[in-house]
Structures are given as structure tokens and as C-alpha cells.
Amino acid sequence: MLSIRGIEIEDTYAEAFPLACARVIVTAEHPRLVRSAATAATGNASSVIGCDAEAGVDCYLDPSDTPDGRPGASLLFFGYSRPALEQSLISRIGQGILPCPTTAAYNGLPIEPAKCLQVGGKIRFFGDGWQGSKLLENRRYWRIPVMDGEFVVEEAFGAGKGVAGGNLIIQGTTREITLQAAEKAADAMASVPGVILPFAHGIVRAGSKVGSRYPKLKASTNQGFCPSLRGQVQSELHPEAAVAYEMVVDGLDLPSVSESMRLGLDAAAMPGIVRIGAGNYGGKLGSFLIHLKQLITAEG
Amino acid sequence: MLTLTRLESDPVPLEAECLRPDTLSALDTNTIAKLTVWHGKQKAELGELFSVHGSASDGTIVLKGDCSRVKLVGSGMTAGTLRIEGPIGMHTGTSMRGGTIRVEGDADDWLGAEMHGGTIVVTGNTGHHVGAAYRGALRGMRGGEIIIAGSTGDELASTMRRGLIVVGGDTGVFPGINLLAGTVVVLGKPGIRPGAAMRRGSLLFPHHRPELLPTFRGAGPLDSVFPSLYFRHVQELAKRHNLGQALNLKPWPALVRHSGDLVTLGKGEILCPA
């Protein structure tokens, strides 16, 4: 049996898949404005099952690390395709960041001209003809007049091929202990640069399976992990488990997601946890299989 | 590296538009020495006026000696590096599209006129019409960057369409006249009548408030990150081109925006202290 400090690690794998990704650097005069803009821009973006994108705050940035020398945040966005992601960014920057006082938005990924996302180049039309642009080091910045001055947004944003759907399922004997372990895991997983945990608080209690008995529903509750359905369905819970939480992680590349899962495994392996596993679809859906066994080996 | 040394100072103008690294890189030393230049109204071979050493196969040319009457150096170049150790004559880097020209001395009029891209760095002063349009042309500089550590002459950036010009010192009269777009940063004192007839574009005078034409309207303090993006970029340019001592890099104060010139489109701006 695989284990970390005596906690069972299921010999299974997480099934992750590629999504188009973008990084937005948002800055503002004050960190509280950065937080508000970041929260608004990444809101309602937990899963592409039901949202236009998966998004979250990668990290907060010191003024020395931002293009304009102000406090900032690095936001990651993931979408099914580049066109879908472009539309999400236009909407989320246009409605979440642009209206927030003093903000500006910059691209945070390398740009390949053929694959870039025209974001500022479309948001600029909000300027109704009063917008202006500046070309600096081959990057075009749009200046859009707003009621507190100007909103500056970069014309093009780079699009990468990210990895979404890295996950862990933590099962514990009580809700209190399992939630505590999941919170520790969330903190550890989010500490890896270039990843986000897109769900609220970084923890999912509504793990889902593909499809439903209702034809229009793309996903529905994963009954095998619902403790209240023991006896009615074939349970996938450990016999001593009372609660399960899922940790979902998206990242700019596979090593980041794997490292995040590795840290999550280690953090969650605490007394009261009876099993840590991962969700998959039998290897049929995702192109990246992240085996927990290899993560433990990587940990040494 | 190809080294060309001017054999003697000569008041007769020399038109040497062949001196550009992208075309010389494919030629051997003998061929380069036989290139035709115009010495006054006479044709001459380059080797009669310069000593020629080395090869430009690495895309680098160094020009030494008194070249203050040598015109059109680097004109139209697309790549490579041209280092001029001393003064250089008129029309240096005109219509260039890429590469870097570094003048370690003064440059005469029409520096970078109608250039499309690339970078020109001057450690000394320059003459008039930097980045300008030639008489009768519709557009001046259309891209690239010109950084001048010293002062410059009249009609800086006349009819400029795109790009960035940074001047560490003062300017002559009419900086940014007829500006179409682009950005001009003057860290010293700008000359009179800045931005006359400008349509779009930005003139930044962070340390001096010039007397403005009556066809500019005050818009109050500019609350935008745009000046700070340029301040950081100027800092980066100074570092990249070793101009840290020459350029005035003290922080910019809050700037006030004046829009104009209202005799034309009026979408340009002059940013200066209150």
C-alpha cells in the first residue's frame, strides 16, 4: 500500500487535459483595489463545465514586479479554445477590471503573433473614439479615458497551452479534520507559481461525474463519493471516511500542476485522514495522467 | 568588426550612404574599399578617404575620425550595429528600418529622419529636424527609437507618425511641430511653441513647463499609468545604452495634461508639471 506518514495513498491517477490559458497582470494604486479587481475578474470561474472560463489569482505582486511600479496581481484564465478565452478576457477585464478605480491590465505571457488574443484591441472601443494607443517595445497599450483618468490595457495577450483538471480527493473521519487537511493542502498547492485552484476556498465538496440521468445536464454529483448515499450506491469511500473533499488545480504547464499536487498530498496527509486519491475518467478524456505513485516517488 | 577610419578632416561633404552594416556584411575588405561615394560633386572610392580594416561579417561597423561632414551614414539600414566614435554629419540613419546606430559624439541635422525602425543613440548633441519629415513629405519618423543624451535643435520630431524620441537636454524651437502621433520625451527645457499644429501624439516635458500656444487647453492632472510606463522605459533605455550619467533620471512629478493643437485635430497632448 502506498502511504505518506501512514496515511493511505490510493494507487490511481488524476486525469488532466489541455486548455488555452492566459495570464493577466492587474495593477492599481492600492492593494485593496487590486484585490477587488482580481476578485471581480476571476469571479464565477470555477469550472468550464458551467462557466465561460476557469480563473483565479496566481499570486499578488510587489510594485517592483509590475510593469508600472504599482501593487498588482497575476491572474490566470483557462478556456476551451483561444477564441473562447479571448471572449472571456474581453468580458472579464472589461467588466471586472476596467470599472475598478485606478486599475490597469497587462499581458503576462509571451506573445506569438499568430496565436495571441486581441483583448485591449477590442476593449478600446469603449473609448468611443477618444481612446489612444502607445507602442512601446513592440507592445501596444491602449489608453481609454474613464471618469478617474485613464484605463491602460495591453492590446494583445499571449495564449499558452495550460493543464487543467489536476486533482486530489481527500477522505477523512470527520468533516472538521478533513476540512482542516483540505485547507492545508489548498495553501500548499496554491504556493506553486503558475497554478490556481479555481474553486471557492480552493476546495470542492461537489465532485462531479460526466453526464447525468437528465439528458441536458453535462455533469452531475459523483454519488460514489457521497457519504449519505452509502447503501444505495456502490460507494467509493473508505469504510472509515465520513467526508470527502476534492482539490482541483489548473496550471500553466504539467510540471507546475504535478508539483502542486505533490505538495497537496504531503500537506493533507495528517491524522484523521484515511485515504487520499484522485479522480479520473479511466484515461479516456484527458491527455495527461498524473499518477500519485510517481508524485510520492518524486517526493522521495 | 569592420573599422573605417577617416583619413583626414575635410570641409567638403561626403555622401556615403553605402556605409550600412547589413549590406557591407557580405563584402570583403577590397570590395568595400572600392565602393563609390560622392565627395562633393566628384565620385571617389571609399578607400581613398577611409582606411578599411577587418570584416563586417558579424554585422558591426566602427567609424572613427572626424566624420562631421560625412552624410547619410546608416541610411536605410535594416540590421546590424554601427558605432560612430566622433561627430557625424547630416542625415544619419534616415529611413533606417532596423539595427542600432550609436554616435559617441554629436550628430548633425536630419538624424533619423523618416526612419521606420531600429534604434539611434547619441551621447552628444544633435542638429535640427531629428526624426522629422523631409520637406514636402507627409510623414516623418514612423517607428523605432532615438535617444539623445544632449540637446537638440529646432523642429524636433516634425510630422512624426510613430516611435519614441528621448532628449536628455534642451530643444530648439517648435519641438513636435505638426506631430501626427508618437511620443517625444524632453528631460531638459523645451523650446518655444511646442506641439504647434500637432494632431495626435504625446509631448512629455516632465521637468519644465513651457509657455504653451493659446490653442492648447488645460485638462488638469493626468491620472494615468502611461507616464510611469515611459519613465520606466527611459530608465531601461539609459541602462541598456550606458547613458545613466548623461540622462536626467530624477523621478517625474505629477503631470498636467494640455490637449491640442486645437487649430488642427486637437487629439494631441502636452504633459508637463503644473
Helical stretch tally of chain A: 6
Global shape of chain A: elongated
Parts with pLDDT < 50 across at least 5 consecutive residues of chain B: none
User: What's the CATH C level of the largest domain in chain A?
Assistant: Alpha Beta
What's the end-to-end separation of chain A, in Å? 16 Å
Radius of gyration of chain A, taken over Cα atoms and rounded to an integer in Å: 21 Å
Largest binding interface between chains = A-B, 18 and 18 residues
Q: What structural category do the secondary elements of chain A indicate?
A: alpha+beta
Largest sheet: number of strands, sense, barrel closure of chain A: 14 strands, mixed
**Main sheet of chain B, how many strands, which sense, barrel?**
13 strands, mixed
The CA-CA distance between the termini of chain B, in Å, is 49 Å
Structural class of chain B: mainly beta
Sheet-strand content of chain B, in percent, reads 25-35%
Name the helix and strand elements of chain B from N-terminus to C-terminus, one letter apiece.
Answer: EEHHEEHEEEEEEEEEEEHEE
Mean pLDDT over the residues of chain B: 94
Strand content of chain A is: 25-35%
Quaternary class: heterodimer
SSE sequence of chain A, one letter per element? EEEHEEHEEHEEEEEHEEEEHEEH
Strands side by side in the biggest sheet of chain B: 5-1-6-8-9-10-11-12-13-14-17-16-15
The CATH topology of the largest domain in chain A is given as Alpha-Beta Plaits
- Unreliable residue runs of chain A: none
